Amino acid sequence: MKTVAIVDYGVGNLKSVSNALTYLGQQTLITGDPAELERADAVLLPGVGAFPDAADKLRQTGLDGVLRRQAGRKPMLGICLGMQLLFDWGEEGRRCAGLGLVGGGVERIQTGLKLPHIGWNSLSFPNPSPLFRGLGEGDYVYFVHSYCGLVASGEDVIAETQYGGPVTAAVAHNGVYGCQFHPEKSGEVGLQILKNFGALIQ
């Protein structure tokens, strides 16, 4: 059976993502071992917390280099802060470099509404993606964030939501995917997204 490696770098709720994938019949491995990440058939990068702290931990462990090498070789999915880390840079607290796998950066959401953006919100799909196969316009997913991706190329935006204005909800670039929301907390819709990610494994 193909294995999805969930990156353990000291940031994120690893178990809930692992449980959701296991429920779908997907074999998972929670690991911070570069060799195991390289052997895995797909990589999932979770994350909870602040961009600079998470980026520093990836660099300190050397996992940033591993993720850059694996990008494009196998399906990769970043969730929440994990999606934000895919970008070139982030400005949470202080400006710092991300993984550079998706062009653009991460800034505080420009909205007159209360931050953080917490709760269920609907999706629209400006560009088609296999990650959202079987979903429909207006399907709801669960968000918890104050910062969002500003994507350099509109072609990389595969889902948006509205929160006092458009907010990037998901991205895709060269086999690297990111969801700002939490599919593992988004009921049947989220499970379908994770199932679709598993289906990308060759």
Give a description of the structure.
The chain contains six helices and 13 strands. Strands 2-1-3-4-13-12-11 form a seven-stranded mixed sheet. A four-stranded mixed sheet has the order 6-5-7-10, with helices on one face. The chain is an alpha/beta fold. The longest helix is centred in the C-terminal third of the chain and has 13 residues, at 187-199. It has helices spanning 14-23, 34-39, 51-61, 63-70, 81-84, 187-199; strands at 3-7, 27-31, 42-45, 76-79, 87-90, 96-97, 102-108, 117-122, 140-145, 147-151, 157-162, 166-173, 176-179. It has a single domain, classed as Class I glutamine amidotransferase (GATase) domain (Rossmann fold), CATH 3.40.50.880. The mean pLDDT is 96.
Gyration radius, in Å: 15 Å
- Helix-strand string: EHEHEHHEHEEEEEEEEEH
Question: Could you say how many structural domains there are in total?
Answer: 1
* Overall strand count: 13
Shape: globular
Uncertain stretches? none
Mean pLDDT comes to 96
What is the topological layout?
Blueprint: E1 3-7, H1 14-23, E2 27-31, H2 34-39, E3 42-45, H3 51-61, H4 63-70, E4 76-79, H5 81-84, E5 87-90, E6 96-97, E7 102-108, E8 117-122, E9 140-145, E10 147-151, E11 157-162, E12 166-173, E13 176-179, H6 187-199
Parallel strand pairs: 1-2, 1-3, 3-4, 4-13, 5-7
Antiparallel strand pairs: 5-6, 7-10, 8-9, 11-12, 12-13
